[in-house]
């Protein structure tokens, strides 16, 4: 596929992907990246929205 390059390790196993930003650097790529980030965080502890709102009203940052 033009603009998609696979990098391999010493055992010739595909390890990384390079994507040509001039070809695929639009909104679709950002959606893919956002999906990967969301997937990587799915098991993290979450904070209820109401608690975040309360903290913001008190002038606190969400991670405080």
Give a description of the structure.
With 64 residues, the chain is of the alpha+beta class. It has one domain. It is built from three helices and two strands, in the order ββααα. The chain has a two-stranded antiparallel sheet with strand order 1-2. The radius of gyration is 19 Å and the shape is elongated. It starts with a strand and ends in a 7-residue tail after the last helix. The model has no long low-confidence stretch (mean pLDDT 90).
Shape: elongated
Please bin the fraction of helical residues: 40-55%
Distance between the termini: 46 Å
Instruction: Let me know the number of strands.
Output: 2
Biggest sheet descriptor:
2 strands, antiparallel
Which key terms come to mind for this protein?
2 strands; 64 residues; two-stranded antiparallel sheet; alpha+beta
Summarize this structure briefly.
By secondary structure, the protein is an alpha+beta fold.
What's the SSE blueprint?
Elements: E1 4-8, E2 14-19, H1 21-24, H2 27-40, H3 49-57
Antiparallel strand pairs: 1-2
